[in-house]
Amino acid sequence: MSVKRLLATATHSSAFGHLVSLLETASGGGDALRILTYHRVDLPERTPLLSPALNSATPEGFEAQMRYVAENYEPVSVRDVQLYFDEHRPLPPRAVLITFDDAYRDFAEHAWPILKRYHIPVALFVATGYPDQPGKAFWWDRLYAALEQTRVQKVATPFQNPLLLATPQQRTRAFKQLRTYVKSLPHEEALAWVDSFCAQLEVELPAENPVLGWNDLRRLAAEGVTLGAHTRTHPMLNRLSLQAVREEVAGSLRDLRDQLGDVMPIFAYPGGGLTDAVVNVLRDEGVTLAFTTVRGVNRMQTADRLRLKRINVGRLASLAIIRMQLLGLTVEVA
User: Is the N end or the C end of the chain the one with fewer CB atoms within 10 Å?
Assistant: First the structure.
């Protein structure tokens, strides 16, 4: 068992829960904003060809987390956060904002009904080049699906030759190595490499697009979900030219306006890729709030509205871990 899994198991113990309760008792509200970020909420066995790395919680686990947030914190909306910066309107003590990246279909099926039940606002960030594009999926999901289905037992790669794929353990290890390698490449080169690699594995990739379509997104917006931009093609913006950054940012904001009408100019950085120059592009394009993948709690008197920190919820995170992270303590599992 890996160290991360051992840690995850330990956090389910009554002793760990008691420690968290003591820390919560000693903690005050403070001038802080905690932002939880999720990707997918589903049972992994329902989507065996989607990367489990982005499955943040099961529906049951997510409901327990949202029940805890509703009972112990003050859920706020992105508009509340914007009013803090624009009009110095204070946030409530123990403020928490919930965000989702990538707009997978399970958001509408599992996450949104739970959020509505507990009256928790949410922001959903959309990579606008993917809705209503049959057969188009994020590169990590295509890579994972190809590895899961292939009968090829070894393959050459730029970093290891051969890369072994004969057993489930080898394929899991290969996926992690390949994901790291792809993230190191410039965006267009990365997409082309994934296409070429998947072709080597001699499989037919799923034809179904796993993200929400525009009709679904319009319905969610009408029901109260705040939609934000997440670029068009989900690149790491720090690996693009500034002109390409501008096209991705402005294009995704324009797509949202064309499809939904008036939307808040908010943005989430894909993979957390940003530089000072990237942030300046967002500012030039009128973005008023932007969300990073930097882990932590935002101390609002010094927070940068275009570099807001978030707490990513991973699939091994117990409720006790999330409770600790909401206190600003660093506990990280996958």
Answer: N
